[in-house]
Amino acid sequence: MKSAVIGGVAILFASLAYILYSQFIGSGSSDSPGAQSAELANPQAEGVPESFVTLKVIMPGDLSARMGDFVENELNDRLVRDLNMKLELTYIPWSSYQQKLELALSTGAKYDLFWYGAPFVSVYYTKGYIQPLDELLDRYGRDLVKHIPDENFKMNRIDGKLWAIPSQAFTSAGKFSSVMVRQDLLEKAGMTDIQTIADLERFYESVQALDPSYYGYLETDRGHEMLWRELTDRNYSSLDERMLFIVDEDSGEMLSYVESDLYKKVVQLRESWVEKGIIDKNLVGNPSAKIDQENAGKLLFRVGAVSRAMENLQTARNADPKARLREYYLAKEKPKFIVTPSNEAFMIAAASENPERAMMFMNWILQSEENYRFIIYGVEGKDYELEKGKIKLLTNDQLMYEWMWRNKDFFVAPAGVEDDMIRDMLANDENSRVSKLFGFHFNEASVKNEMAQVTAVYKEKFEPINFGLAGYEEHYEDALAALKRAGFDRVFAELQRQFSEFRLQR
Hints:
Elements: H1 2-21, H2 33-39, E1 53-60, H3 65-83, E2 85-92, H4 97-106, E3 113-117, H5 120-126, H6 134-140, H7 142-147, H8 150-154, E4 157-158, E5 161-162, E6 165-166, E7 179-182, H9 183-188, H10 197-210, E8 215-217, H11 223-231, E9 236-238, E10 245-248, E11 254-256, H12 261-276, H13 287-295, E12 299-303, H14 308-319, E13 325-328, E14 337-338, E15 344-348, H15 355-365, H16 369-377, E16 384-387, E17 390-393, H17 402-405, H18 419-426, E18 433-434, H19 448-466, H20 472-485, H21 488-505
Helix pairs in contact: 11-12, 19-20
């Protein structure tokens, strides 16, 4: 009996010793990437990762007072509890986001995670700024895969590998081809809806007669696509935000937009809008001033984005409590195209020291409805409350951008948004068509020098024409010649070659 007791004690002691010391057996320094990977090898198990990290994230915009307080307190308290990490956010103003982001990425700054639009995935892949995510998603992204459709992930695959997390899973057909208007002012001007370009011009003129302090239209980037619906009987989609190339959705042909008759029609229309005052030439080249005017409630219309009316409503009502927003499509009988099912992409930087935790953080957001609402809206009862099944914000301070993570499984409409607008938005993808561009990524590696020169010339020579500030007749030929000298034809030929191969493989 005595020997049995002694044997039992010995076994118990050995078990305790193993529990206490096994975590150190075979592990290297906790600072090494290999050691961290070993620690996180079973992320779905109970408990949290053993090593504490600071996850460094770059976001566009400005850090509001409440957002700073929320991150440092409630959010980081929750993240320490659930993921043994804290979030360190670096905000870059929208007006300089691309420039400063690329500076950080190109110099190897130790950031982990950042956001940008889906068209930039292939650009940053080519430049080597980001890392592949397949293994990370397989190990730590169970809830991302559960709540985001597979086709969204396919959009961010290049050469068989995943390079970005498509954080949004919502309606997307016709994105950037609608127009968002101040519906309350439209009705005040005696109009009910927008169907044509002439309606937009009449809207501006009518409101100006009532109150000349309102501005017309100050969009400076994707506004061309909104006008294509009426200015041509063809169906076109833009390759990316640089507005150099378009695909004919009917024929499948890749075209040079800046050499097309459609380009001429668009920029000459914008010239006329400058003359009429619809585009204010003193503001159009100043993104910060444009945003200021919108925040002040002084813009009458801008390019829509399927759900922009809902997203911008709170900002509009901060300036004018009676403000109402609505999105319309010109030539509404024409089809809408799904170019990318999620325009929002989170990428893990190549220089990231915590790629596992970055993926775990993204997964954590969609792990539950509670986490989703918490990171977007803050603390219930303090930052928001539910009012008749809708989100009512209790603070004017911006927290996380809801549109970056909007997910059909967890979506709740904001309070004050009319039900018919929500119905229109949720039904947006009905009767849509999949774009010929769906899943295509232009690999610029072989023409990266020419692409850099072309982009620089485009910005210098074409953007003033795009905005209606430099006359087409006076400046176009010189701008096109400069674009050709920069290597435009070689870029276009390589693009056409890759797109033809892509089409044959579909």
